[in-house]
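Lab notebook, entry 305. We have the chain sequence and a SMILES string for LCMDX3IU, and the next step in the workflow is to get a structural model of the bound complex before anyone spends time on docking refinements. Request logged below.

Task: model protein plus LCMDX3IU, output structure tokens.
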Amino acid sequence: MAAAAATLARRITRSGVLPLCRRLPVWGRAARRPPGLPLAPCRAFSNKKIQVDMNESSGVATMKFKSPPVNSLNLDFLTEFCISLEKLENDRACRGIIITSAIPKIFSSGLDITEMCGKSTEHYTEFWRAVQEMWLRLYSSNMVTLAVVNGSSPAGGCLIALSCDYRIMADNPKYTIGLNEAQLGIVAPFWFKDTFVNVVGQRVAERSLQLGSLYPAPEALKFGIVDELVPEEKLQEKATAVMAQWLALPDHARQITKSMMRKAVLDLLVAHREEDIKNFTSFVSKESIQKSLRMYMEMLKKKKS
Ligand SMILES: CCCCC/C=C\C/C=C\C=C\CC(=O)SCCNC(=O)CCNC(=O)[C@H](O)C(C)(C)COP(=O)(O)OP(=O)(O)OC[C@H]1O[C@@H](n2cnc3c(N)ncnc32)[C@H](O)[C@@H]1OP(=O)(O)O
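Result returned:
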């Protein structure tokens, strides 16, 4: 596992663009399973920050974020996430993934702000490439991707949910979700914005992005950021039912449709990846942005006392 992580990290950071394997539609994965063979009921693999359980009889993997205190997306987390996605993408038995959190009340706090504070240009480059890689893999996945948002999910956490095919959120107004970058004095990159627009439409996205709005669950439903609210104790049951509904269709039709809907947005980042990294590194290196991020971190810490 450590060797695989090191290899992937090297590939992400050195070669520039990690080959996005199996991006094109895969024809009927499930149909390739040898008929009549008994299937092991469940397989699992776990890294430091993400636990994956694979149910082979349903072809559904559950990916649980388990990086305390708040599942923030640092370089190690992003690398593990990409490796887990790659493993599942290449596993013919896997047709769908449920992405959720093992940390109570938090889905993910978004990008780890400490990765964007006081570091070198090389570090920002490596970090941003990993953020891009995570999104490219998730948004272009052939699998059915279902976000079970069982806690707050600001910024990068919201991006993960938005990149899935369907979002179920726990019906709790204390949990918030949204792209709140503007509140930190930073700007959501164009591909965060495009992903958001594809889910909620231009008007809601524009207003929400300019205001950096974080929506309590009921409002998130109203604006279409999530598809359904479900009592927390019913999330698992609901996720299983939704997944079964999506998996009832032939894979190839769903995959080609998904690819058709998302291709333009994916292609744009692939074509402008290096430029996007340069924009990020020069933006985040500005003293004024560093100051905003430091103040935001201090505000988070003060909030406790
Ligand atoms: C024009 C060109 C443009 C180019 C593009 C340029 C730039 C784009 C750049 C970046 C895009 C970034 C997207 C992001 O994801 S930024 C991250 C945004 N995240 C947040 O705003 C969330 C902040 N956190 C919270 O609101 C709360 O922590 C949360 C609701 C998640 C949980 O609250 P709770 O009360 O349970 O826990 P806390 O006590 O607040 O936190 C515990 C602990 O964790 C630290 N922490 C929280 N979030 C983060 C984080 N995102 N990164 C790093 N650390 C985080 C918090 O400080 C506490 O630490 P400690 O006090 O215990 O040490």
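Notes for the group: The radius of gyration is 19 Å. Worth checking against the assay data. The chain has eleven helices and eleven strands.
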